[in-house]
Amino acid sequence: MPEIKVTPLGAGQDVGRSCILVSIGGKNIMLDCGMHMGYNDDRRFPDFSYITQNGRLTDFLDCVIISHFHLDHCGALPYMSEMVGYDGPIYMTHPTKAICPILLEDFRKITVDKKGETNFFTSQMIKDCMKKVIPLNLHQTVQVDDELEIKAYYAGHVLGAAMVHIKVGSESVVYTGDYNMTPDRHLGAAWIDKCRPDILISESTYATTIRDSKRCRERDFLKKVHESIERGGKVLIPVFALGRAQELCILLETFWERMNLKAPIYFSTGLTEKANHYYKLFITWTNQKIRKTFVQRNMFEFKHIKAFDRSYADNPGPMVVFATPGMLHAGQSLQIFKKWAGNEKNMVIMPGYCVQGTIGHKILNGQRKLEMEGRATLDVKLQVEYMSFSAHADAKGIMQLIRMAEPRNMLLVHGEAVKMEFLKGKIEQEFSIDCYMPANGETTTVTTNPSVPVDISLNLLKREMALGGPLPDPKKPRTMHGTLIMKENSLKLVSSEQALKELGLNEHQLRFTCHVQLQDPHSDADTLHRIYTHLKSVLKGYTIQHLPDGTVIVESIVIKVSSSTEDSNTKVLLLSWSYQTLIYNGLLPGG
Amino acid sequence: MTPRLLGAVEDSRAGNKARREQKSSGERCCVSKANCCQLIYQQLLLLKMKLYCLSGHPTLPCNVLKFKSTTIMLDCGLDTTSVLNFLPLPLVHSPRLSKLPGWVSKDGTINLGKELKECAGRVFVDAQPEFCLPERELLDLSTIDVILISNYHCMMALPYITEHTGFTGTVYATEPTLQIGRLLMEELVNFMERVPKAQSATSWKNKEIQRMLPGPLKDAVDVWMWKRCYSMQEVNSALSKVQLVGYSQKVELFGAVQVSPLSSGYSLGSSNWIIQSHHEKVSYVSGSSLLTTHPQPMDQSSLKNSDVLILTGLTQMPTANPDGMLGEFCSNLAMTIRAGGNVLVPCYSSGVIYDLLECLYQFIESANLGTTPFYFISPIANSSLEFSQIFAEWLCHNKQTKVYLPEPPFPHAELIQTNKLKHYPSIHGDFSSEFRQPCVVFTGHPSLRFGDVVHFMELWGKSSLNTIIFTEPDFSYLDALAPYQPLAMKCVYCPIDTRLNFHQVSKLLKEVQPLHVVCPEQYTQPPLTQSHRSDLMLELQPPPMPYRRCSVLNLPFRRRYERIYILPELANSLVPSEIKPGVSVATVSALLHSKDNKHTLQSVPKPPPMPPSKKRKRVIEEPPVALAPKPMLSGAVALEAFLATLQKHGITEVKVEETADGHILHLQAEDTLIQLEEDGTHIVCDSEPLRTTLRDLVLRFLQKL
């Protein structure tokens, strides 16, 4: 029985370091190659030694697919391809291909230049790695090799985020990456067709959350920002340079415009300008509304949002600052946070999920005293607000996607075990399909039952259809008989006659003859005729012929009559039939 | 059930007769029903693949392919050359045009002065220009399931096909094709509606009158089918039926056919199409290019192994080299500007203009044209320039790389930023106040019959300092200029057509090797004006099948196989046996399901155990088809081995007699004969158990198919 195997190297009952291995139809695919924000040691990257202990991965992987540019999905890519060693194809969408190297470089700089780590990938490695990338278009069917094909669907999580359908023969797997089922201010909703994969591998970040309406969340967010500004506080919003940042910028921009607010909004890092350029050039990946109006007004040209300079953090008066990175684990957002944490007038709004181990995660869990590097502690006095703006599907959205794709099995990754457990129960109950949630390094095996594609000779198909009564009635299937020829890789279904001919074989006739005695005073010819009329009356629907040479033929059964030499009243019936003759229940026993 | 009940109750002859009659009438009915079914399945399986040709224009095709059970329209080209027979639509009142004399036949009997005007010896219709539509009578357009669009130039007739015809299908196109196609339609509607002309001219279309008219009006065909432009409402409704597709996306149609667009290299989002089932493949090649301009390169290899390749959209200028034309364009432009004249470039608002602007971007500085204003005037100028920058996925590699930086892929962004290129929706408004001369103006429509270009023709036509440079190949420039004669302005003809030429296409066909090629008849002979150039035609073996407007071609397909799926349960139950090294066979008896054009085989469910019954009647009425037939046999029974086997089964007294074709075995104790021959075995035996044993022993030696 064919099997599909799924092994998470990361993101198994966890968020971060997404890296999932799939074996399907003899092909091995790596889905995402991310890093873990919560660790600074070996655990930061997936454990590639699981794939092979010695050397390069090229021989063990048929392709690598990256779902989107977030570092927990692509952060280990240069390490994997250049330091561990992989030269095969890497697939990602155009926007991901454009943005991913910038984020990788950013990540590298923070790690190597600021933290002084060595034995890390270099700028050149990022470039070399990106050379192995083949861009994917939405809905394009990419033939990785003769058997393996992949197809990307819109995922709506960030610009260029994709879900991917992987198919070998009639077996298939869908990997969602991170996705969002509700359109927001700049992205559309994820969509997939009814592709009925054997396994749907879904993220489950918000497995237990049913989020209130987006409008409420937005109103809440604006209200909090506004109140804080009004009382002269500073608002820090840690974000990743691309993604939620643009969404919140659009939100604040329109609010500032409407309310005619004067407090400055800043966006940290030089990435902003560049980031917005990407959004302008890849506008076809945004939502309908933005695409429709981009000629008149480009939503990514902000009037109120200005570039941030480090010195502004000490400026008096209210301000709003978007700073990277989003989980307060390093960089500018952390620096600003340290500066502002002591004042209760200030506020930090965490607009997305924070992985365990990050400061973001700690303060969201209510920790008010933080241990900093060098044994210093930081008292957190500012207001901490959490507002889920990450574009992940919530429980409702995940169920909606299952309804769309109609998978045969479900597999959850990219979530916390407890929450997964809950969702798993719900899925199994609602859809009556198996749901798996392997931990890292644990393999889930799903047995598939693919049907076998075969080429049937048109002659045979035609004949069967002609025999079988009304054709367009799918409720009345017809029985079909033929011979399946298996030659090299081809499977052909033909009629037995054609099979003999194609294989250059002679037919071997097998016939049987037996004698039956019966008492009948009539002449031989009359007896035969009586037999003929009797058969005619009992065997309705069969071809029965009385030939002039003194034989009766029922289908392919030959009947002859002769008188016994001893007694002319005793007639000997000679029955002869071939092996292929259909035996009409008890009529001709033992042939 | 009724007949049997009847039979049980009534035993009279009358009853039997009635039953027989009933039965026989039932049979008759069955037969005719079976015949009818046969017809249906034959249609389904053997339906001749046909091609209906609705347009005779080789670069603006409109063909309908009946493939298996699907009806697929390939492109929806609108032949706009008919507008050359009309007077231009001026944006501002033109005294010259309004003073043209009306046409009166030579003998003075026919006066169509209101409809027809004469200018420099040519006669023009004074009414809103009309287009020559694809044929609408050749087949019922409401039966079309899908329309495949290959590029934005080949979709301009879409509203005529999808609106008011009962069309309920889907249109497939790539995103750039849809967006730019929409812009071009919008522009066309805008050009027409901006200068409404209430007057319609129909008298001249009368056959008797048309015969009397001077050429080319006299020779215009199907003039009654010419139609005015559609409305924006119709455009929107037509385009709402478009479903977007990406290159190499596989779109399943009704389970029977799969269609897939391939990059064709001609324009943004332009595609060729593969239409295939598991065993047949048709390639549809429309406007394609092998030159490196802005679009993604042409995908050639996917066209391989086609049964039929439909070839349209070759270059209209087989003797003009696009690079040479581009050079001439630049030098003429520079010369005119230096001499203080203006340059008018009548062009479409998308397509080659991007390449012209890119070429000028590099040329401007070197030619010292840094201060010359370049204007692009069209209601869609801004949109076209903006849209060109957002289709990174559809661009050539170089341009894609720029987007990764991120920089706009086309340099016209910089031309606009540095104020070298300015765009305006029309000559009215800002343009009239900011306009400086000498200048270069890009504007439409290339037919010179409508759009802002009409104004510039009137404005600049009288001065020999000015130059008009034709770059679009769709219209004869002499015909385009006819209603403006006499003209002092210089005319330069630099048609840039990047589509495949005959040399490229024969190389391509050699590479992809289709079994048959179908093409417009124009491609099967040299152009009329260059009848000696046998290199300007397709020479293929077997020769291409030519089509013209209204042709219906039977496509040569020999279908022998169909895809069927064996369900896992059945697949697992099959017992293959090896016949020769590497070849195995298995007999299959299964239920055939046919639904949505997909066939599947599943195991025959085990019949419920029949209650032991001696009633023969009941048994006999089981339909014969439900019984599994025995397999065919092959091979031969080897005498020695068979004798040994018999011995093992306790049959020892065997007398072997040699015959001409084999042996006869006489099993003396059992009074049974077995005739063994090369291709047959005959068992003559009256005892059923023994016969069954012998049968099984013989079968051991034979292969079952």
Automatic annotation (TrEMBL), chain A:
Keyword Cytoplasm applies: yes
Subcellular location: Cytoplasm; Nucleus
Main location: cytoplasm
One GO term (biological process): snRNA processing
InterPro entries: Beta_Casp, INTS11-like_MBL-fold, IntS11_C, MBL, Metallo-B-lactamas, RibonucZ/Hydroxyglut_hydro, RMMBL
Keywords, sorted A to Z: Cytoplasm, Hydrolase, Metal-binding, Nucleus, Zinc
GO terms of molecular function: hydrolase activity; metal ion binding; RNA endonuclease activity
Chain ranges of the Metallo-beta-lactamase domain: 16-229
Cofactor field: Zn(2+)
Gene Ontology CC terms: cytoplasm; nucleus
Entry-linked Pfam families: Beta-Casp, IntS11_C, Lactamase_B_6, RMMBL
Leader sequence residues: none
Domain Beta-Casp stretches: 245-363
Family to which the UniProt record says this protein belongs: Belongs to the metallo-beta-lactamase superfamily. RNA-metabolizing metallo-beta-lactamase-like family. INTS11 subfamily.
Protein name per Swiss-Prot or TrEMBL: Integrator complex subunit 11
Lineage of producing organism: Eukaryota, Metazoa, Chordata, Craniata, Vertebrata
Gene giving rise to this polypeptide: INTS11
TrEMBL record, chain B:
Annotated spans, Disordered: 596-618
InterPro entries the record matches: Beta_Casp (IPR022712), Integrator_9su (IPR027074), IntS9-like_C (IPR048660), Metallo-B-lactamas (IPR001279), RibonucZ/Hydroxyglut_hydro (IPR036866)
Primary residence: cytoplasm
Keyword Nucleus: yes
Domain spans labelled Beta-Casp: 353-481
Presence of the UniProt keyword GTP-binding in the record: no
SUPFAM superfamilies in the cross-refs: Metallo-hydrolase/oxidoreductase (SSF56281)
Keywords: Cytoplasm, Nucleus
Subcellular location: Cytoplasm; Nucleus
Tree of life domain: Eukaryota
GO process terms (BP): negative regulation of transmembrane receptor protein serine/threonine kinase signaling pathway; regulation of cellular response to growth factor stimulus; RNA polymerase II transcription initiation surveillance; snRNA 3'-end processing
Cellular component per GO, a single term: INTAC complex
Similarity remark: Belongs to the metallo-beta-lactamase superfamily. RNA-metabolizing metallo-beta-lactamase-like family. INTS9 subfamily.
PANTHER family, alphabetized: INTEGRATOR COMPLEX SUBUNIT 9
Name of protein: Integrator complex subunit 9
Lineage: Eukaryota, Metazoa, Chordata, Craniata, Vertebrata
Gene from which the chain derives: INTS9
